[in-house]
Amino acid sequence: MDNFKVQLADIPFDITKADANSVWKNCLTIIKENVKPMTFNTWFLPIRPVSFENNVIKIQLPTQFFWEWIDEHYNHILNKAILSVIGPEGKLTYVITDEKESENELKISIAKNTETNSVSTKSTKPTTGNGSSSKDINFNSNLNPRYRFENFIKGEGNQLARATAGAISDNPGETSFNPFFVYGGVGLGKTHLIQAIGNRILEKFPDKKVIYLSTDSFTVEFVEAIQSNRVNEFQNFYRNIDVLIIDDIQFLTGKEKTQDLFFHIFNTLHQARKQIILSSDRPPKELKGMDERLISRFKWGLAADIQPPEYEMRIAILKSKAEEFGMTISTDIVEYIASNITSNIRELEGCLIKMLATASLNSKDISIDLARKIVREIASDRKLNLSIDDITKIVCEYLNVPENKVRDKTRKKEIVMARQLSMYFAKEFTKASLKTIGLHFGGRDHSTVIHACSSIEAALNDDSQLAEIVVKLKNKIELHYK
Ligand code: ADP
Ligand code: MG
Predict the structure, then answer these.
(1) Which CATH number is correct for 149-306, 3.40.50.10860, 3.30.1360.120, 3.40.50.10240, 3.40.50.300?
(2) 429 CA to middle of ligand 1, Å?
(3) Ligand that lies nearest to the alpha carbon of residue 246, given by its number in the listed order
(4) Largest CA-CA distance found in the chain, in angstroms, rounded
(5) What is the number of the ligand 1 atom nearest to the C-alpha of 313?
(6) What are phi and psi of 207, to 5 degrees?
(7) Per-domain residue ranges for the chain?
(8) Tens digit of pLDDT at every position of the chain (482 positions)
(9) By the 8 A CB rule, do 134 and 126 touch?
(10) According to the CATH classification, is domain 388-481 in 1.10.10.10?
(11) Which of 245, 332, 370, 419 could form an SS bridge with 212, CB 3.0 to 4.6 Å?
């Protein structure tokens, strides 16, 4: 959770007059901003507020399992929401629906210091093997201890990246893989892998200063440092790190000042043989808007891609995650999911989680019907997550056509093609109506969209070059599902 978003539903909101419903409603508003829609619907909507007294909000959850899951995965979001709504004295207690009479109420104190963290403090558990460190006690690596090599499944698609990650963990800064640049589509394990390196290094070398952060956090911290005149301090801090892990470096494109600063930090660290690990959704050479000096440095070490999982790997992932979650799930269900969710490991995981929650909510077993229902829901969530603009961007980037041109009146051949393809995919991949799609492309009407879609469909049969472009683009779009 990098940029934690806070916006209260009822403003002005007077906490001294609030009741359980309004407190919880405000919490939900904040939580909703900070988790994926599926997570929100699955885990937070079923919660009911019970009472609110003396700054303590009591909520009711359907099962103990629900609480454990939320506590393990979304604890920090829940904490922050409660502190934002109730204030620093805010506390939470819970009861379980089906155990009404057993006073199984557990108080968790969440009134921790709210002001300290400008860097996200994700993990609730301490990193193992990091106990006897001589480091500054306040040093926070930001690593999530759940991301480990032990639970990172091997497959063809991640072979090189994984092997390199292993080598780096043994000898941080000392291999020729510096920087190590991991790239690939959404939900394929980049964050998991680069954090696994950090966790492994801390296990082996507890004294090393390892820090993980998203490019957004890095940028936000930098901006804050500028505002408070602490740029030197900021720079010195990063120059003293042993292992710097920065996620989603593509978000640095277009941010010239931050790039410049990062360039200097990069050089200092690299010269001192400190390990730098970066991830990105695309290879270095495709990072438009990134300083050429940085791009050339990104290529100094090793750039390894992660490809979507093949069928066998999808099966392996489902089996291993099911075990991790303590689920019993039959082979035909595993195979069904592996055949229907193909491009993204996060979605495979999401599917299991959602089945687990639904089954637990209704006290039912996990059946193939449930699997079908949830696979369908995931497909429709996907549609909601992808915008017409996302699609246009992907199409235009691929065809090398300026994005704003597709909205113009131009009849130039390649621009017409980009426009028609964008409309075609917008129809396939979003829930937008033909009218809305038309409006997105310079206010054209719905019949233009129908015409675009049917010309693409007609051409697919006898234009093998176009057919190939459509397949490639489809894969690209699927990789961008959020
Ligand atoms: P990315 O950063 O590429 O978008 P993540 O690292 O966030 O993807 O991975 C998405 C989810 O899938 C995470 O929960 C992660 O643990 C899981 N995952 C990804 N790759 C693997 C793998 N090879 N083995 C096990 N789990 C994986
Ligand atoms: Mg990631």
Answers:
(1) 3.40.50.300
(2) 23
(3) 2
(4) 72
(5) 23
(6) -85, -10
(7) 15-122, 149-306, 311-381, 388-481
(8) 445 666 555 455 788 888 999 999 999 999 988 887 777 888 898 899 999 999 999 999 877 778 888 888 888 889 989 999 999 899 999 888 755 434 343 333 333 333 322 233 333 333 333 433 345 545 789 998 889 999 999 999 999 999 999 999 999 999 999 999 999 998 999 999 999 999 999 999 999 999 999 999 999 999 989 989 999 999 999 999 999 999 999 999 989 999 999 999 999 999 999 999 999 999 999 998 999 999 999 999 999 999 999 999 999 999 999 988 888 899 999 999 999 998 889 999 999 989 988 887 777 888 999 999 999 988 887 777 788 999 999 999 999 999 889 988 888 999 999 999 999 999 988 888 899 899 889 889 999 999 999 999 999 888 999 999 998 998 888 777 65
(9) no
(10) no
(11) 245
* Probe residue for ligand 1, chosen from 277, 320, 345 as the CB with the greatest number of ligand atoms within 8 Å: 345
Going from the Cα of 193 to the center of ligand 2, the distance in angstroms, rounded, reads 9
Q: In ligand 1, which atom is closest to the CA atom of 348? A: 12
Ligand nearest to the CA of 192: 1
- The secondary structure of 276-304, three-state, reads EEEEECCCHHHCCCCCHHHHHHHCCCEEE
Atom of ligand 1 nearest to the CA of 152: 24
Under DSSP, is residue 243 helix (H, G, I), strand (E, B) or coil? Answer: strand
276 Cα–ligand 2 center, Å: 17
292 Cα to the center of ligand 2, angstroms: 24
Dist CA 396 CA 437 (whole Å): 16
Q: Does domain 15-122 have CATH number 3.30.300.180?
A: yes
Determine the distance separating the centroid of ligand 2 and the alpha carbon of 327, expressed in angstroms: 25
Closest-CA residue, ligand 1 atom 20, reads 189
The Cα–Cα gap between 275 and 245 comes to 8
User: Tokens representing 218?
Assistant: 């890095």
Among candidate residues 301, 281, 274, 362, the one with its CA nearest the CA of residue 98:
362
195 close to ligand 1 (CB < 6 Angstrom): no
Q: In what order do the strands lie in the sheet with 106-108?
A: 48-53, 56-61, 91-96, 106-108
Residue 190 beta carbon below 6 angstroms from any ligand 1 atom: yes
Q: Ligand 1: does its nearest atom lie under 6 Å from the Cβ of 209?
A: no
